[in-house]
Sequence to fold (550 residues):
Amino acid sequence: MILSLQSLGFLSTLQVIDQIDPILPRVTLRTQTTTSSAACPACGTPSRRVHGSYWRRLADLACFGRPMFLLVRVRRFRCAAVACPRRTFAEALSGIALPRARQTDRLRVIHRSIGLALGGNPGSRHATTIGVPISRTTLLHRVRASAAAPVPPVTVLGVDDWAWRKGHRYGTILCDLERRRVIDLLPDRSAAPLAAWLKEHPTVAVVVRDRAGAYADGARQGAPEAKQIADRWHLLRNSSDALRTVLEQHHRALRDAARSAAQSVKPPTPEETHRPEPATPPDVPRPMRVTERRSQAAQERRDACFAEVARLREQGWSQKAIARTLGLGRKTVRRWLRAGHAPTWRHADRGASILDPYRTYLEQRWQAGCHNAAALWRELKAKGFAGQGGVVRQWATRRRRQDPSAALKVGGNTPTSRKAAEPPTPRRAVRLLTGDREKHSDEERRFVAALLERSPTIATTVALIGRFARMVKDRVADALDGWLREAEVSALAPFAAGLRRDEDAVRAALSEPWSTGPVEGQVNRFKVIKREMYGRAGFDLLRARVLGHA
Fold:
């Protein structure tokens, strides 16, 4: 049987001469080349003199979900050139398979794509499923071989670090900001590897980086003529860190401002906090659980739906039309109309609580002003209560939600009052001082106002940080000199000194459009790839997969 594969759209230089093993879980085709001559690889002389032939077995794409192999009859030719050192040679399968390869070129491409997307073990399982089986080791060899492609010329280079293990070991990622793609990975974030890479790629004219000293030194050593640009987001982050350093030196001001903000709340009057104790303690119902509230809401929705069903039925609608309109089943509509109401589903009784015999006493103590769960638990324990303190804490939490005045006592012995007077951490204080005041709560606004009023140093620093942020966001390079002069005589002097040392890159950040934002996005994608391999991949495999995805 002779069948030209050209009609099938692939391997047009082969033709099928026979097929074998049709009942096995694989498809094997006997094929031969259609060319009548071949060129000698040593001298290039074409030859038609056939010396002999041999069979070459090549794995190919799946056929109807089963692995397929090609048995190609490869001919050996005699070289017609007398002076050629080679007497015979085998014809090349150009466009079909590489010399000495056991897979076709297109199968190699498929395996490489699977390896880049899934990695070793998952890729091997997926390849077996779709009929192109391959071991995980061979699959990873395909991935590693794909990383040898040369780096294209790059003009604008983005540099950032990535973590092998956060806080311990880092590497460097390099991106072409014009093409927005990763072009290389470096095994660490020191200056020497970056300088060596830049020397090998002299086309780099702009280096966009964070303010790490190692990257600045590496760029100066490897590309002294390139323009360095500091990333604007890192400038804002550095300014926030500088403000946090100042706040860490003014812990007393933070504490006093927090107390002032807490004390400025109008305390409740005695009439609001101390209610006259009734002769008989009221029978306060147990607060509803979350599941009970959800069940009640679901019942209300069912009742509303039944009301709509009844209204449509009164208007003459059929049960089928009602079901289609309201998204209900016809049996549901029929059952509801027969019953005359929506079904009522109740959860099974969970049983009595160990706290039930003591609820009356707890309510008496609560009305008397004792809202401390630990104290209540100790009193119950003295009366024979065998439960843990967590049961009483849960009851007190639900009871406190019903009685908000218990949490508003300023200066009282409740956890809420003590927490209100605790100063925020310097990191949180930075967010309060630099964030949008319109989104703050009243207590946060009082804290910010009290802090700025009590500490002129913090007030001056916050004003300088705000001006710096507007200058960076609006990219106003002309305002940098004046801001630096003011900052150098303030608490931000160390931060201003660092900007002076890197002034050219900072000034370029305020005038150039480039930033490391695309690099940060590539770092996030890189983290996903690294975590897919559970952190067990070496640098060569990790680099191959990242560059292959790019």
